[in-house]
């Protein structure tokens, strides 16, 4: 027990939380910003470790769901906090953050894991039924919540009317809940790894005890709070760096999204390296789904007291990138297996998103 308490995966989340308490609401100087960055990186690695402990205890697909929902809930809380304190200037914050998360997960995490899986085994093999259902849910949520507001006419601009926002919030929550039931109860086998061929993978190790799993749940939440909070504290330094290289201010949101999604990215890559590509896809698409399905209802409730407009509709360039992502995703998912080419195509789409965020 004493050895466990001294473990870095126990110490680092606590240190990150304490550091966050001291620096929250401040603008750290250069030296403190470096310290925050180191603590942020450590919290990311600790979060991945504890997520894998919990996943091993509860099994798939519950393990992937735990990490995706935990990160998204804290991300949503951060968005609401920024919108409450930021005023009308944050009208597009929810849209930009959710869209960045969708592009990073469905192209970056998914593409990287398919590429790694294909390199290791020749083909990245996964369950087409489960992955297809997840992609269809992501497409529906994105279309109803991010594309439709651009074309509705009740409000001027890419906004929903209160009735439309309420409808989108209820439908998003219901659809996400329906998917979770499908993933964890009715058709759980659709979301389990198709095969495990890596003889070095530690898949037969005994699950951790209930006490250790509960401790990891608590430390996972602490680590994720540290990741999101320290990313927020680090944002002035990021803004200064972005401005120094001449990038648009909107690119800061992309950097923050990349930082927040680091725990899921590392966990997904580790799963792909164990030839468990299905777990990687559960993480990628589950995170995209949770990002929309939990953010829109929360923002709908928060809009009651938020000042200023709430712009959810994507612009033309963003809609083209989303359409390319979804069409390519369907073609990738249908066969139930992918080569390095499919992984590379998704990574190119992520590169296009990042490039156009820098050079719109």
Automatic annotation (TrEMBL):
The keyword Transcription regulation does not apply. The chain crosses the membrane at residues 7-24, 30-50, 62-86, 98-119, 131-151, 163-181, 213-231, 251-269, 281-306, 312-334, 341-358. Residues 31-184, 216-358 form the Sodium/calcium exchanger membrane region domain. It is found in: Membrane. Keywords: Membrane, Transmembrane, Transmembrane helix. It is a multi-pass membrane protein. This is Calcium:proton antiporter.
């Amino acid at each position: 027990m004493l050895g466990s308490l001294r473990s870095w995966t126990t110490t680092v989340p606590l240190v990150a939380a304490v550091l966050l308490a001291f620096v929250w609401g401040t603008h750290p100087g250069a030296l403190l910003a470096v310290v925050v960055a180191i603590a942020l990186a450590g919290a990311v690695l600790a979060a991945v470790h504890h997520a894998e402990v919990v996943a091993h205890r509860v099994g798939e697909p519950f393990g992937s769901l735990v990490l995706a929902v935990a990160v998204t809930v804290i991300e949503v809380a951060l968005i609401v906090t920024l919108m409450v304190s930021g005023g009308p200037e944050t009208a597009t914050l929810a849209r930009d953050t959710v869209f960045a998360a969708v592009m990073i997960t469905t192209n970056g995490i998914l593409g990287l894991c398919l590429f790694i899986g294909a390199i290791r085994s020749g083909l990245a093999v996964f369950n087409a039924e489960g992955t297809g259902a997840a992609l269809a849910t992501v497409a529906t949520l994105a279309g109803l919540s991010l594309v439709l507001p651009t074309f509705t006419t009740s409000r001027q601009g890419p906004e929903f009317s209160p009735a439309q926002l309420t409808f989108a919030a209820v439908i998003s929550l219901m659809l996400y809940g329906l998917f979770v039931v499908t993933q964890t109860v009715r058709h759980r086998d659709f979301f389990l790894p198709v095969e495990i061929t890596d003889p070095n993978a530690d898949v037969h190790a005994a699950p951790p005890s209930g006490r250790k799993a509960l401790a990891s749940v608590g430390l996972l939440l602490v680590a994720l709070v540290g990741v999101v909070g320290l990313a927020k504290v680090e944002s002035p330094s990021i803004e200064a760096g972005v401005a120094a290289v001449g990038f648009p201010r909107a690119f800061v949101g992309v950097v923050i999204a990349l930082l927040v999604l680091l725990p899921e990215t590392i966990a997904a890559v580790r799963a792909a390296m164990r030839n468990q590509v299905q777990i990687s896809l559960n993480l990628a698409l589950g995170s995209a789904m949770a990002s929309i399905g939990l953010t829109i209802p929360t923002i709908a409730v928060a809009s009651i007291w938020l000042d200023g407009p709430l712009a959810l509709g994507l612009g033309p360039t963003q809609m083209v990138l989303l359409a390319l992502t979804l069409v390519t995703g369907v073609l990738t998912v249908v066969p139930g297996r992918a080569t390095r080419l499919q992984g590379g195509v998704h990574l190119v789409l992520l590169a296009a998103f990042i490039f156009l965020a820098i050079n719109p």
